[in-house]
Amino acid sequence: NFVRSQAKRFRPNDLQTTFKDVAGMEHAKRELEEVVDFLKDPAKFQRLGAEIPKGVLLAGPPGTGKTLLARAVAGEAGVPFFSINGSEFIQMFVGVGASRVRDMFRTAKENSPCILFIDEIDAVGRVRGAGVGGGHDEREQTLNQILSEMDGFQANEAVIVVAATNRPDVLDPALLRPGRFDRHVSVDRPSRLGRVGILKVHVRKVPLGENVNLEDIAGSTIGFSGADLKNLVNEAALAAARDGKSQVDRIDFETARDKIMMGVAREEVLNA
Ligand code: ATP
């Protein structure tokens, strides 16, 4: 089935990502603990008639680990993870958005318990009627289909829909109503301590020179997201490899940081 094949699917045995891979974000992990518990044993909750959230919204700037976190929830619970990007619903062919949504939810229900992850939900979930001019029917139909699928979940269908956005302010309030994305978890740029933790995760397989001090690096990368820090470690390793070294030294991190900061500055100029 063409449509079904579009939703990327990760079977439980591919799911090596767990909370261990997510540095810091203790608050977010705590909030999601309940979802993990539920996915591990939905019947335990269903027997007691306990209402479990159907939708969780992860809100925060790009690269702060929203996708990583959603994947880690699936990994912790040992359930399949299906993911799709909100923009994919509208991109390909006009008229298929709503049917793709139907198909995606059907696949998820067939594989329940599972996580259905919708990245960049704002691409379909912007407040209705806010566009300039007309031509937004496609998006509205897609959004309406998502809402009706979520409303239609049966008590024995253990699908948790996790959505991510860096623009929670533009979302249609209908998405945020009780029974839909009514749990909100905010994911912020890491603090200095958070950056140390993220660096530690990403240097696990990197041989470091003795002069490398992760606290210092964290101190000099204010404003970096998790994705920026991952990139930093990789750029530093590339710099070391280019120089034929067998370990990554402080100077390599400095070179990498300068390179990334130049990129960030350029982006800021472009966005100004
Ligand atoms: P976007 O909004 O751009 O989709 P995102 O918030 O979903 O970004 P991810 O794609 O999850 O961010 O993060 C990119 C990469 O950055 C992750 O795969 C991971 O390697 C790294 N990363 C981000 N946050 C963390 C973290 N807290 N701990 C460890 N790694 C992190």
Automatic annotation (TrEMBL):
Source organism per UniProt: Planctomicrobium piriforme
**Protein location:** Cell membrane; Membrane
User: Which residues of the parent chain are present?
Assistant: 192 to 463 of 662
The UniProt annotation places ATP binding at G60, P61, P62, G63, T64, G65, K66, T67
Record-stated family: Belongs to the AAA ATPase family. In the C-terminal section; belongs to the peptidase M41 family.
According to the record's subunit comment, the protein's assembly and interactions are: Homohexamer.
Q: What exactly does this protein do?
A: Acts as a processive, ATP-dependent zinc metallopeptidase for both cytoplasmic and membrane proteins. Plays a role in the quality control of integral membrane proteins.
What range(s) does the AAA+ ATPase domain occupy? 52-191
Protein known as: ATP-dependent zinc metalloprotease FtsH
